[in-house]
């Protein structure tokens, strides 16, 4: 037993164990029929090859390595597919193999433990919240019912452009379109505008910060053993603070709606629909308050990012 505590013996055991583990991983990797992969660096893998314009870097890599290739982004092996035909095959015939997303630090803190549609693990909960979104919130009839919201916000935008034109002032069309899109989404979700021209709306500011943080770099996501760096850099403390502020606003909105005896007293937005389904026992799962908040954020997040990509095309 005393030999086990000998520093030399312990060092030798650790060294041998490391070699064995490395050889096993190498042997397993050699047996896999993996797609081609660009040369990678130790620890960071292929992160350095993404550059400041990742979409263009990936395009250039696909021209060199083909329409499907493998990258190592820190700790995460990442399959890159740039062929429409291959994407269709993956989504149609191999959808279950690719149905889960990796755990993301920002989603854990900002989306109530990754319980929104975009980040929730594949399973019964995900299927049910997706059903709620598709059947109850985003069906054709429901989308048409919000036509007046879109019309009103477009009219507001046109008036702003006309006013600036008369005065001979320049405008930031991308920013104005984002305000339009965000207000359309927020009015559909909970009947309130969250953006103002001066950017002083608190909820609008918090929402923009949430979406920015969801797309920010996290040490813990790329290198799990460096998760403590997210605390030192202020990434996690910032998300905790924002989450608390958003939570207070959502709690207030939900309590105001639940205080109404009849949800028909106000225009039917997503929040009212979900709360009425919950009250009437028409949901197949028990949604907690946090689940409802995540669902509302998820609905807005998906549409917000879609409009954001559209505005980038104008640049």
TrEMBL record:
Note the superkingdom of the native organism: Eukaryota
Q: What keyword terms does UniProt attach to this protein?
A: Iron, Membrane, Metal-binding, Transmembrane, Transmembrane helix
Could you tell me which InterPro entries the record lists for this protein?
Cyt_P450 (IPR001128), Cyt_P450_E_grp-I (IPR002401), Cyt_P450_sf (IPR036396)
| Record carries keyword Lipid metabolism | no
Q: Name one Pfam family in it.
A: p450
Q: Which GO-annotated molecular functions does the record name?
A: heme binding; iron ion binding; monooxygenase activity; oxidoreductase activity, acting on paired donors, with incorporation or reduction of molecular oxygen
Protein name (database record):
Cytochrome P450
- Native organism is Corchorus olitorius
């Amino acid at each position: 037993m005393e030999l086990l505590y000998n520093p030399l013996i312990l060092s030798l055991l650790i060294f041998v164990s490391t070699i064995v583990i490395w050889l096993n991983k190498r042997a397993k990797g050699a047996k896999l029929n993996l797609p081609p992969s660009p040369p990678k660096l130790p620890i960071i893998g292929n992160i350095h090859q993404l550059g400041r314009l990742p979409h263009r870097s990936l395009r250039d890599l696909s021209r060199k390595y083909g329409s499907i290739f493998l990258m190592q982004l820190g700790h995460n092996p990442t399959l890159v597919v740039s062929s429409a035909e291959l994407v269709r095959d993956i989504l149609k015939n191999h959808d279950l193999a690719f149905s889960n997303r990796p755990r993301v630090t920002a989603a854990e803190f900002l989306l109530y433990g990754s319980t929104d549609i975009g980040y929730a693990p594949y399973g019964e909960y995900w299927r049910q919240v997706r059903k709620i979104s598709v059947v109850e919130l985003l069906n054709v009839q429901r989308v048409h019912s919000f036509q007046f919201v879109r019309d009103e916000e477009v009219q507001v935008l046109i008036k702003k452009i006309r006013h600036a034109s008369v005065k001979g002032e320049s405008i930031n069309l991308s920013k104005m379109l984002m305000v339009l899109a965000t207000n359309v989404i927020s009015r559909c979700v909970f009947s309130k505008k969250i953006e103002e021209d001066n950017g002083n709306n608190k909820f609008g500011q918090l929402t923009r910060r949430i979406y920015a943080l969801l797309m920010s770099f996290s040490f813990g996501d790329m290198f799990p053993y460096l998760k403590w760096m997210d605390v030192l850099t202020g990434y996690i403390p910032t998300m905790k603070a924002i989450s608390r502020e958003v939570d207070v606003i959502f709690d207030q909105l939900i309590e105001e709606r639940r205080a109404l005896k009849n949800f028909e007293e106000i225009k039917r937005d997503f929040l009212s629909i979900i709360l009425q389904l919950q009250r009437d026992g028409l949901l197949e799962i028990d949604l907690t308050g946090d689940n409802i908040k995540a669902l509302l954020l998820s609905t807005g997040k998906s549409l917000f990012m879609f409009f954001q990509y559209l505005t980038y095309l104008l640049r």
